[in-house]
Amino acid sequence: MRSRDLLGLVAGALLAGVSSVDAADYGQRPEVGYGKPVADADLVLWNIDIHTPDGANLPAGEGTVPAGKLVYEQKCIACHGEKAAGGPVYGTLVGGIGSMTKSPRVLTPGSMYPYAPILFDYVRRAMPMDAPQSLTNDEVYAVAAYIYNLNGLVPDDFKMNATTMARIEMPNRDAFVRDNRPDTLAERCMSDCKPIGTVADASKPAAAPR
Amino acid sequence: MTKAGDPRAAEAVSWGHQDEGEAAGVIMPASTPRRGFLKGAALAGAGLMTGSVAKAAPLPIPESNTVMGDPIPAESYGLPTEFEKHVKRRRSDVFKNKQNFSDWSMTPLQHQIGIVTPNGLFFERHHNGVAKIDPDKHRLVIHGLVDRPLEFSMDDIVRYPSVSRFHFMECSGNTLTDWREPKSVTVQQSHGLLACAQWTGVPLSWLLAEAGVKPEGKWVMFEGGDGSGHLRSIPIEKVMDDALLVYGQNGERLRAEQGYPIRAFFPGWEGNTCVKWLRRIKVVAEPDQIRGETARYSDPMPNGKWRQFSMVMECKSVITSPSGGMSLKGPGLYEVQGFAWSGNGKITNVDLTFDGGRTWREAAIEGPALDKCLTRFRYRWNWDGGPAKLASRAMDSTGYVQPTVEDIARVREISGFVQHHNGIFPWTVAQSGEVSNAIA
């Protein structure tokens, strides 16, 4: 019995050794792949994201401010309100330019977006909320012309298209900075520490470190 | 989106009375049974060898001992007992949206046992409701700056060897109602855009290697199949490091509200990067700078600036028991419990204060303390019955120490809808035992 137990132990150790060798490929990329080739032509209806800084991938089409007002009043006004000033579901889409150094900052496509084509990308993919991707490209250009006109960024006779949209100068263009955290430098104080501060405390001069 | 008129009033209705019930919010001191024991021992010592004084009638036989139990149905998906009905995910009710399609629901962290959040309690955040997708029809595409654009069916995806990993997920907006004023009553409201699961799927690096990323491909765009076409761009380094394409969560396929049949998962990064109902991956040279990368998910900074692509969720912790809305019943021993987590690594230390931050003591970390994963801490606290101000402070494996909101407000702008709140979160315990939010 004793030698059989020993044999069992040895066999177990061998098995364990073998399985650990097998396990070495866990998490490693297998040599097989199951993706099937797909052509760009297959993806024309999917590839709708706009590279907003230069407007790359904006489609053909055009819209005017009056045409946009009609689209807006049919498809958008129920949630966003008269003249996009805010409605029963969402706040204003107009104004806020110059508010970024105030509190509160008023965030609208006019005040917030660094690049005008963001509005095309977003409206086409997500609006109206109950029928996303239902607007034609001309309708999206038109409603964008209407919204930016209400924000004072394009004139009444503006023709919004792939070329003109990318050229609109947005007031918030240079406001964005990349993540540079960690930006807090808290220390692990255990005794005789400064009590937990509040946001209001941050407007007072910093206490000398203890 | 607007704020609720009076969130505290709404809270009193939804939590204090209707749903929680009185008993659920009351914590008895752990020392009560011990005192009973000591009293009994003293009596025994005095020569009363019969032990404790008997009740008027013997304990009755429970009814459950006298009847047949419920039968096993032919098939079912099991649900918690009716006695746990108060443990529910709840729609945001402090920051109240006027519609419930681009909205969120919050995990009841005060009821969570262990580090894994049950799938039915895992918080939700959608941009246009919960998409319904037939997995047999679903297709995932990888294209853009790749040598071989590829299309995958779900059968293709589940055929790969898989990996399973435990990670937390936190919404970038977690705790955003509570910077300047204590708006939330419960920890579900203040911290419930947080949950943790075991995620199962395929490393995204495998699929991108199969497609062959071109040298100029530096970012990868992920787009969802929902009614918002939600989209985020992720640096290629993160995608090739630890990102997953997941179809499994806690032992089953993803729930619809978590992106069924597949979602992206970026361990430790804000929840909205983990694009649900994933259908398109596009390798690009630089981000598209779409709405969700500029006007949303960016942080106000001093001088009118906005910080963008701040996707790591930094080290944070919170005490879940005792926490807001609970009530301590008398002085004695209480086990303080809570969670710590970091998107930058493992939790190494959690300290607790009971005096508002003047002195701190180290809590016990209950393993496992995994990378980018909810980690539990515990501490035996003897409440003397006087007013106390409790908080936890976590430290992660990079040496980063969780800051106070004052520390954060000294380097960022706290104005409006401010995300990435990882501040130390204090609760006060009044002499009555009532526990309240004490962020300000």
UniProtKB/TrEMBL annotation, chain A:
Keyword terms of this UniProt record: Heme, Iron, Metal-binding, Signal
Signal peptide: 1-23
Pfam families, sorted: Cytochrome_CBB3 (PF13442)
Coiled coil: none
UniProt xrefs under PROSITE patterns: CYTC
Domain of life of the native organism: Bacteria
Domain (Cytochrome c) ranges: 63-151
Transmembrane segments: none
Protein name: Cytochrome c
Species of the source: Chelatococcus sambhunathii
Lineage: Bacteria, Pseudomonadati, Pseudomonadota, Alphaproteobacteria, Hyphomicrobiales
